[in-house]
Amino acid sequence: MSIARPTDLDGALAAIAERPDAHVLAGGTDLVVEVNLGHRRPDAIVALRRVEELRRHELTDTHLELGATVTYATVERDLAELAPGLAMAARTVGSPQIRNAGTIGGNVGTSSPAGDTLPWLRALDAEVVLVSAADGERIVPLADFITGPKRTIRRDDELIRAVRVPRVAGPQHVAKIGTRNAMVIAVASLAIVVDTDARRVRVGLGSVGPVPLRATAAEDLVSDALDWDALTCDADTVTAFARACSEASTPIDDHRSTAAYRRHAVGVLAARSLRRCLS
Question: How far apart are CA 6 and CA 259, in angstroms?
């Protein structure tokens, strides 16, 4: 196995251009498991941990940009005020060791339906910044980037440079349910952002479809019914919102859960999360 360990972005792009068949290694929390289980046998790896440009996060007047190798630990430690929903999601990931290694870019690049940050990113219409030595940068909406379970439109000669989300004001909440309380893959997950500037409730769903989903009908319903000055709504609206989130899901039966339970669970998470945002 050949391993490239570049120290800057140009070096990383040169390495992936030279070996487009190489597997990209960010934190390794997904790739190393698959290698150990025999699911992958890479001939070449491009390891990104030493690339300083990818470890940065930047704030503008309108956006938060997260470098591809920003870790979950960095998010929960440094970005809890700027991105409270993302920090909540980061805290649910694995153990402290995993949070110190796992990265935002890795979560997006792996594109598992159960990716813990993906519902929040989907709720905020996140954009993925891709870069290659041949063509430079291109920016793709997350909704278009992920095409199916662990499938994306990233070309072999491209790296994820960053993930970009708009800055929003208002309460946020992220919740997931699994077979135990910690260190668990989500059976169903949900992110809700009450965008008080746009007067829009945004909802992302995870583990209840082949890709992260938006519950747009549920968003329309609650955004129209909410008293935006008081940030309140009646109990019937909460119930209808939860039902609409359940109806937006497209879950499957598998070894971790049934589709019926996932559909029910995401509705429960929706009602609880909305109440917490409005409390």
Answer: 44
Rounded CA-CA distance 34/107 in Å is 15
Render the burial of 144-173: b for 16+ CB within 10 Å, e for the rest. Answer: ebbeeeeebebeebbbbbbbbbeebebbbb
Query: Measured between alpha carbons, how far is 57 from 79 in angstroms, rounded to an integer?
Result: 9
Q: Would you state the structure tokens that stand for residue 47, as one six-digit string?
A: 């390891």
Percentage of the chain with pLDDT > 90? 91
Cα–chain-centroid distance for residue 154? Answer: 16
Q: Is 61 exposed, middle or buried (0-12, 13-18, 19+ CB in 10 A)?
A: exposed
Distance CA(27)–CA(243), nearest Å, equals 37
Judged against a pLDDT cut of 80, whether residue 182 lies above it is answered with: no
pLDDT in tens, 68-86: 999 999 999 999 999 999 9
Q: What are phi and psi of 17, to 5 degrees?
A: -70, -35
Backbone region of residue 75 per phi and psi (left: phi > 0; alpha: psi in -120 to 50; beta: other values): alpha
pLDDT band for position 179 (cuts 50, 70, 90)? confident
Residue 184's pLDDT is what?
85
Q: What confidence tens digit (pLDDT) does each residue in 130-170 have?
A: 999 999 999 999 999 999 999 999 999 999 999 999 999 99
The token pair at 57 is 């996060």
State the Cα–Cα distance between residues 188 and 68, nearest whole angstrom.
Answer: 25
Name the strand (E) or helix (H) holding 47: strand 44-47
13 CB-near residues (< 8 Å, 6+ apart): 131, 132, 133, 159
Backbone angles phi, psi at 60, to 5 degrees: -115, -175
H/E stretch holding 191 reads strand 188-195
The alpha carbons of the chain give a radius of gyration, in whole angstroms, of: 19
